[in-house]
Amino acid sequence: MSTQARYRSVRFGVTRVKVRESRDAQGRAVRYVDAELPLGPYARRLSDHLLHWAEAAPDRTFFARRQQLADGKTGDWIHVSYAQALGGARRVGQALLDLGLSAERPVVILSENTLEHALMSLACIYAGIPYCPVSPAYATVSQDYDKLRHVMDTLTPGLVFAADGARYGKAIQATVGKNVEVVLAQGKIEGRKTRTLQSLHDTMPRASGKGAVDVAMHAVRPDTIAKFLFTSGSTKMPKPVINTHRMWCANLQQITLSLPALAEEAPIFVDWLPWNHTFGGNHNVGLTLMHGGTLYIDDGKPTAAGIAETLRNLREIAPTVYFNVPTGFEMIAQAMQTDATLRKTLLSRVKMFFYSGAGLAQPVWDSLHATAEAEIGERIVMATGLGMTESAPSAMFVNSPDVKAGDIGVPVPGMTLKLVEVDGKTEVRYRGPNVTPGYWRSEAATREAFDEEGYLCTGDAVLWIDEQDIHRGLKFDGRIAEDFKLATGTFVSVGPLRAKVIVTGAPLVQDVVLTGLNRKEVGALIFPSPACRAVSGLGPDTPMSEVLASAPVRQRMQAVINELARGATGSANRIARALLLAEPPSIDKGEVTDKGSINQRAVLKHRDALVQALHDDVVPGILKPE
Predict the structure, then answer these.
(1) For the chain, first and last CA: distance in Å?
(2) Would you place residue 2 in the very low, low, confident or very high pLDDT band (cuts 50, 70, 90)?
(3) Peptide bond before residue 437 is cis, with ω within 30 degrees of 0
(4) How many CB atoms lie within 10 A of CB 421?
(5) What span, in angstroms and rounded, lies between the C-alpha atoms of 213 and 230?
(6) CA 411, CA 474: separation in Å to the nearest integer?
(7) Rounded average pLDDT over 566-571
(8) Which of the pair, 263 or 185, is modelled with greater confidence?
(9) Measured between alpha carbons, how far is 146 from 151 in angstroms, rounded to an integer?
């Protein structure tokens, strides 16, 4: 990427870092990295922001979502102001307190991103009652409810809130005890006593006295648990990450100092990212609240079926910053090439694009930049970083418009990175006010997660972008647990090679899982993107197996494998065999999250027979370099 390119002006906060070198108890060289910019003060509790904006801008829209019509379509926007949000939070929060809910008996939320979901979350935050938004897929896609049952057994909720009785009723009946209060936004569950959300909203809040919601709000301390967020889970069950008010408030301040553009005006977000994930639920909702912004809930998704709704919303609402995963940006980049209204609206005031979750293919970058330059005469900065559920979520951000695939940047203020050599790589570990105290009701998992100095072990490997200029920060070097050795003893660095396959295979490759543990060669299980169907020339109802077997797709993918082989420097980064998978990754088996992130270990575990067949040459359709 040329550094001479012109970008829409955006300021980065952390431009310099401090590095201290030492050695640990094992004698390994250790580096500690801090931002030179100090963290400074931040809010004691999330509700402080709600109180501020309800007074400073009571009529400003906090959340908006399109009306859900009877035919399944969406209508006009329904708006909830800051004053309305505070009023609803006090009313519902009072009702929750009257039910005796607490950290031992928290609220579990089964819902997509909705206005009712937002209300229940704000009520819990205001009243100091922990809540847990659960992946809707655990209740609506899963057939066995094992993960949902695990959530319920771990948290022992006193109340379960669901968006719709018809949609979530079966899962509730299978996993929620009869002694647990069930509240529905709409509908009913046959054979089960439930309450309506409206009945909670009808409760009159009390400002003083025992059990009063305003008294409870003032009793919330930085270490009070705000929510539980479950990790995505790999070969094990998801873990419940404690999120305190300190973590959340500190991280919002850290994000804002790192990306000052977020505070230059009240932000406008158009966002689909699920609130049961830390990116959507902590980062995006939290930033909206902190800065008195407006979050337009996007009912679309970066899927063939869901992208139309997202594009509709982006034609109408111009965001100030736009967040998405790489697949979403790929679809938007393609749509902007032919959609003048989309280009005009989306690019009218957006200061920054921000992606997370996976690597963004270079052709997508190039397309977004070319479209922006043609439309507005300058590029939009494409920012990214690194974080995790346990860091609330943000730990690092890039600090320059000159970003390349894999760059993750420098630590946020107040966060110390510890760089430790592990299995031939450099692991990054975290310590700071935004780091979780541990996993709820899981002392063993908590002990395992932290090292002897109290740093959170992330399992993420990093490298310096430029060892001669440490202020540029770090780049991602894969997940240490995903790396493996070939039979020759050669290490395969999965992260960089996986990213290379995705970039080279764009736009046909959605994701890839690398194989070859204790074998002579590296193989690849390739999950195809919807673009394969267009390339095949076959109809929309044609089975994916036939699409992948079509000559046009085979020819294009053969060219990808050949190109990868030409660029390889040895057995550790040469794809010797690959297979296109017609069966998509399974949420039930933990192969993919509802945000679309692939879990390498889970795919390898559940498709072990296919991996064996790939390397034994006994499965049809194998692609090899020519």
Answers:
(1) 31
(2) very low
(3) no
(4) 14
(5) 27
(6) 9
(7) 92
(8) 185
(9) 9
pLDDT of residue 24: 84
Average pLDDT over residues 460-483: 93
Which H/E stretch holds residue 18?
A: strand 17-23
The answer to which of 277-291, 327-341, 583-597, 600-614 has the lowest mean pLDDT is 583-597
How far, in whole angstroms, is CA 326 from its chain's centroid?
11
Q: How confident is the model at residue 358 (pLDDT cuts 50, 70, 90)?
A: low
Count CB-CB contacts under 10 A for residue 263.
Answer: 17
Asked if 339 and 304 count as a contact pair (C-beta separation under 8 A), the reply is no
Reduce the DSSP state of residue 374 to 3 states and report it.
helix
Q: pLDDT digit string (tens) for 112-149? A: 999 999 999 999 999 999 999 999 999 998 889 999 99
Contacts of 400 (CB under 8 A, 6+ apart): 12, 472
Phi, psi of 572, deg, nearest 5: -75, -20
Per the CB < 8 A criterion, the answer to whether 33 and 41 are in contact is no
Q: Under a CB-based contact definition with an 8 Å cutoff, are residues 545 and 600 in contact?
A: no
User: Do 42 and 413 meet the contact criterion of CB atoms below 8 Å apart?
Assistant: no
Distance of alpha carbon 113 from its chain centroid, rounded?
Answer: 14
Domain 17-42+281-479 classified CATH 3.40.50.12780?
yes
What is the DSSP secondary structure assignment for residue 143, as one 8-state letter? S
Strand 17-23 relative to strand 352-355, pairing: unpaired
Question: 517: which 2 tokens?
Answer: 């543990």
Asked if domains 17-42+281-479 and 77-220 share a fold, the reply is: yes
Distance of CA 542 to the CA centre of its chain: 32
Fold classification of 483-616 (topology level): GMP Synthetase; Chain A, domain 3 (3.30.300)
Sign of CA dihedral 435, 441, 445, 446: positive
Q: Write down the domain spans for the chain.
A: 17-42+281-479, 77-220, 483-616
List the one residue out of 28, 24, 34 whose CA is nearest residue 453: 24
Cα–Cα dist 437/263, whole Å:
28
Handedness of CA 43, 48, 54, 60 (dihedral sign): positive
pLDDT level of residue 234 (50, 70, 90 thresholds): low
Q: Choose between 4 and 504: higher pLDDT.
A: 504
Average pLDDT value for the chain: 94
Phi, psi of 528 (to 5 degrees): -75, 155
Residue 55: exposed, middle, or buried by beta-carbon count in 10 A (0-12, 13-18, 19+)?
exposed
Using the predicted structure, report yes or no on whether residue 102 has a pLDDT greater than 90.
yes
Residue 294: in which H helix or E strand, if any? strand 294-297
Closest CA to 253 of 139, 136, 412: 412
Query: Nearest CA to 384 among 458, 465, 303?
Result: 465
Residue 81 has pLDDT above 50, yes or no: yes
Residues facing residue 411 across a β-bridge: 396
CA–chain centroid gap for 60, Å, is 27
Pairwise CA distance, residues 352 & 329, whole Å: 13
Q: Is the pLDDT of residue 235 over 60?
A: no
**DSSP type of residue 204:** P
Cα-Cα-Cα-Cα dihedral of 282, 328, 332, 136, to 10°? -70
What percentage of the chain carries pLDDT values higher than 90?
82
Residue with tokens 């049952």: 149
Prediction pTM value: 0.89
Strand partners, 23: 29
Distance CA 424, CA 492 (A): 11
Cα-based distances in Å from 197 to 120, 159, 492: 9, 12, 52
Architecture of domain 77-220: 3-Layer(aba) Sandwich (3.40)
